[in-house]
Specification:
Elements lengths: L8 H11 L12 H8 L3 H16 L5 H34 L6 E6 L2 E6 L8 E5 L7 E12 L1 H4 L5 E3 L4 E2 L4 E13 L5 H8 L8 H35 L5 H9 L1 H22 L3 H18 L3 E3 L2 H7 L4 E5 L5 E11 L5 E2 L9 H12 L4 E3 L2 E3 L3 H10 L9 E5 L7 E6 L5 E7 H6 L1 E5 L5 E3 L3 H13 L3 E9 L2 E14 L1 H12 L3 E5 L4 H10 L9 E4 H5 L3 H7 L3 E5 L3 H13 L4 E5 L5 H6 L2 E5 L4 H6 L2 E3 L4 H38 L11 H20 L22 H23 L1 H4 L9 H22 L14 H20 L1 H4 L6 H12 L1 H15 L6
Parallel strand pairs: 9-21, 9-24, 17-20, 21-23, 22-23, 24-25, 25-26
Antiparallel strand pairs: 1-2, 1-3, 3-7, 4-5, 4-6, 4-7, 8-26, 10-11, 10-20, 12-13, 14-15, 15-16, 16-19, 17-18, 19-20
Length: 857
């Protein structure tokens, strides 16, 4: 190594100028200002901006400025909270990945080994590699040999042997050996860099965002229609009704600019107020709140949400493609047993150590191994070597001398070592079908030998172990031309216990799980059965080769029954994601390697593993910090909770809006012009909705949600049950309000005052308290509206807070809030009418239940 001069300082500068640096081009960093501008593009925010513009243009007196300020506050809160949440999430991710650019690389320059940053490596550099190093750029081996883990790039789980002139790629890891390679590609020109560049395409909108766009468009149309009707109804009341339908008086009023214009402008003000009321400005704010609050809760469950839409999309998942290693399994190879030719299984080496066969096995496993014990710790070798050595335990290598060694290669499919044991004995270890074909005899436990009559029987035994989920190797010893079979080495990546329950939960939730693995078909099938993924003969297991022989149309037909893709290649993932999406399925994909990035980017929800590459994390929506399938299940549950919470809030919000709009539209025909003042409307429309948004944002994730089928990709956010509750309960509340305002019987229960001040004060209380009680109706489609209420303490706190503030307004609001203190009896009467919304909605739910109609939110 030290005979290599390497590049000079001048050559380094020249190479960097000519070929560029080793820095991977990052996507443009998001600024808080950019996120705010992006949030302004939300359709509901646009509607509010239009309403604000009209309001500013036409407001007539100082009182109107309160509502104008209210709209401004709503816009600011919705955009800033959203932007801060997204920005905070991005910062958390940047902090997580900050260390990647600080990796130091050993390069040879001016005949000296220097440590430089990975980004300072240039084309033509000579880089020294040893066990544990990450390859910093693409190149070819110049000197020495190494075993490289390329699984993050190619998906191939076996370590690759790299000798002189063999290519190495950025992002791979050296697991054994040492050497020097010449850099041939840096930065974006590396394989790693090209994939990073490929994933910069635009991410499609989430399913929920699409649904909300449709809802916002619908509500805006309704809002403008209602605003028009309010203007017409107000003018009809003032011009026609108040003039007792006298045509001459009507003509006189319309002909007087001074008399008619104030009414016209006031009607426009009312119309704008209706737009503000009709458009649920609490909706974008609530969505942000519910996503943000659940993002924080998920972090405690080892789930880092990079993009808020990732959580809600996970709630709509139809199909999930997941890696096996480290997610469904522990990702740690263990030698779990040894099986002799005669079928005896030794789970522990201590069970066989005392017999002659144990001695022969120990020599094979210890000497034919690149790993070693150093201070009671296993170092060197690959994962298989280390698993085997752990099974044997500490054993010295000083007793016998190695005469000859053959390293494992994909061509040989075995490794061997010759020792000065009993007249120079060769010990072989490798693929059981290859080692078995070289054997004429087999060892018994006492060391005596028997003749192998049929090698195919030996291979069949190996196949049986493979079918049971083991990675099977075989070992033999003796003279090279007449080897004796020692037995089968059984290695396994143990299944995570929580993966079994996780697969069951996902299945019960109506989500199809497909395992993607580099294992062969037999092993993959066995593991899939062990975790409960395969339960029927109709379930399909394919290899990558079989998959690639099929047309897209053929693959689409089998996707609903697909359970496993074995011997998978990186391009298989992206193809499956695209075809699943073309079938209308909301698709999730897990991944950890550079090769997984395009599929993670394309999927509706990309789950990157915490131990994965930075490229995979960069394009993901969600990072599973503990690489655990159980955490993915939690994400799905929280995603469904979010969708439920948003629907509950929509029911609550639109019921309030329907009541307010109905009063404003229909009220003037009955002589009811302004049942609530602008400031009261601000309290109802802004503070109430904002606080309610926070309350619903903390709805608990219930296990029952995982028993429901996933929402369809094109399912509207408003379903028939929601519409029923909004219309029926909303109309009841509207009629109750009108009855309260116009009934002489009701008025007789309150003191007589100027301008009905006691009745109007009571009406303000009625509207607020009725809305509060209906919030309990909206949060549950069950008969028992108080179910799981203790799990949402925020809801209880906010409800209490609103009640206290409302009472303060009634008793101390005065002329600002147009309120006058009520007696205890008057307050009790008001509460009696307000709470009637609960038994009314109870009856509505019972009727729906009797009719056998769906009551699913």
């Amino acid at each position: 190594m030290f005979n290599i001069k390497g590049l000079t300082s001048e050559e380094v500068l020249s190479s960097r100028k000519l070929n560029g640096s080793n820095k991977i081009t990052e996507k443009k960093k998001t600024t808080i200002f950019g996120l705010i501008i992006e949030a302004m593009n939300d359709p509901i925010i646009k509607i509010l901006l239009i309403a604000l513009g009209v309001k500013i243009l036409f407001f007539l007196n100082d009182s109107d400025i309160y509502e104008t300020i209210g709209i401004i506050v709503a816009i600011i809160l919705a955009t800033v909270i959203s932007s801060l949440s997204e920005y905070g999430s991005e910062k958390a991710f940047q902090k997580l990945s900050k260390s990647t650019s600080n990796i130091l690389v050993k390069v040879i320059r001016d005949s000296v080994v220097k440590n430089v940053s990975i980004e300072e490596v240039v084309k033509g550099d000579y880089v020294y590699l040893e066990s544990g190093d990450k390859v910093p750029a693409d190149g070819v081996i110049y000197n020495g040999s190494v075993y490289i883990d390329e699984s993050m790039l190619s998906g191939e789980t076996k370590e690759q042997y790299k000798s002189v002139n063999k290519k190495v790629y950025r992002g791979s890891v050296v697991v054994n050996g040492s050497g020097v390679f010449i850099v041939t590609g840096v930065g974006n020109e590396t394989y790693y860099g090209k994939i990073a560049k490929d994933i910069q395409e635009k991410t499609p909108d989430s399913p929920l965002k699409n649904r909300l766009r449709v809802l916002a468009t619908f509500i805006s149309k309704i809002g403008y229609i209602c605003a028009f009707l309010v203007i017409v109804s107000y003018l009809f009341n003032v011009v026609v009704v108040q003039n007792n339908f006298d045509l001459d008086k009507i003509k006189l009023m319309l002909g007087s600019f001074k008399t008619f214009t104030p009414h016209l402008l006031y009607s426009l003000t009312l119309g704008i107020t209706i737009i503000v009321v009709a458009v649920p400005e609490g909706l974008p704010m609530m969505i942000t709140l519910v996503l943000s609050s659940n993002m924080k809760r998920l972090l405690k469950e080892n789930v880092l949400v990079r993009k808020l839409v990732g959580i809600e999309s996970s709630g709509s998942l139809n199909i999930l493609y997941t890696d096996k290693t480290g997610t469904l399994t522990k990702g740690k190879l263990e030698m779990v047993g040894f099986a002799s030719y005669d079928g005896k299984l030794y789970k522990s080496f201590s069970d066989i150590r005392k017999c002659k066969l144990g001695e022969i096995l120990e020599l094979n496993l210890v000497y034919n191994n690149q790993a070693n014990y150093v201070s009671s710790e296993i170092i060197g070798g690959n994962t298989t070597d280390r698993a085997i050595l752990k099974y044997v335990g500490e054993s010295g290598k000083s007793k016998y001398r190695v005469l000859e060694r053959k390293e494992f290669s994909s061509e040989l499919k075995y490794s061997s070592v010759k020792l000065n044991y009993e007249g120079n004995t060769t010990f072989v270890k490798g693929a059981y079908e290859v080692v078995g074909s070289k054997c004429k005899y087999y060892y018994r436990c006492d060391g005596s030998r028997g003749i192998i009559k049929n090698v195919s029987e030996l291979v069949s035994k190996g196949d049986e172990f493979t079918k049971n989920g083991y990675r099977v190797l075989a070992c033999a010893s003796g003279k090279e031309d007449s080897l004796s079979f020692v037995g089968f080495i059984l290695i396994k990546d143990e299944v995570r216990e929580e993966a079994v329950s996780g697969i069951k939960s996902v299945s019960e939730a109506g989500i199809q799980t497909v395992m993607i693995t580099g294992d062969n078909k037999l092993t993959a099938t066995s593991i899939a059965k062990e975790i409960g993924l395969i339960s029927s003969e109709e379930d399909i297991v394919l290899t990558s080769e079989e998959l690639n022989k099929m047309s897209d149309a053929q693959v689409k037909k089998i996707i609903p029954k697909l359970k496993v893709v074995a011997r998978s290649l990186p391009e298989d993932k992206k193809r499956l994601v695209i075809l699943s999406q073309e079938l209308g399925l909301v698709t999730g994909m897990t991944g950890d390697g550079v090769n997984d990035a395009p599929a993670l980017k394309r999927a509706d929800v990309g789950f990157a593993m915490g131990s994965g590459t930075e490229v995979a994390k960069e394009v993901s929506d969600i990072i599973i910090l503990d690489d655990n399938f159980k955490s993915i299940v939690k994400t799905i549950l929280f995603g469904r909770t979010i969708f439920k919470s948003i629907r509950k809030f929509i029911i609550f919000q639109l019921t309030v809006n329907l009541t307010a709009v109905s009063l404003s539209v229909i009220g003037p025909f009955f002589g009811i012009t302004t049942p609530v003042t602008v400031i009261q409307m601000l309290w109802i429309n802004m503070i109430m909705d904002t606080l309610a948004g926070v309350a619903y944002a903390y709805e608990p994730p219930l296990d029952s949600y995982m028993k429901e089928a996933p929402k369809k990709k094109d399912e509207k956010i408003m379903n028939s049950y929601m519409l029923n509750e909004i219309l029926v309960t909303g109309m009841y509340m509207s009629l109750l309000c009108m009855f309260f305002l116009k009934s002489e019987f009701i008025h007789s229960m309150y003191r007589v005052g100027e301008n009905d001040k006691y009745v109007m004060s009571a009406f303000f209380g009625l509207f607020i308290f009725m809305t509060i009680f209906n919030a309990f109706n909206a949060r549950s489609n069950r008969i028992n509206i108080f179910a799981n209420l203790r799990k949402n303490k925020v809801f209880l706190f906010i409800t209490l807070f609103i009640i206290v503030v409302e009472l303060l307004m009634i008793y101390f609001g005065g002329s600002i809030f147009r309120t006058t203190g009520l007696t205890i009896i008057e307050l009790d009467i008001t509460l009696f009418f307000a709470i009637s919304v609960i038994p009314f909605d109870f009856i509505r739910k019972q009727v729906i239940k009797k009719l056998g109609k769906t009551n699913n939110i």
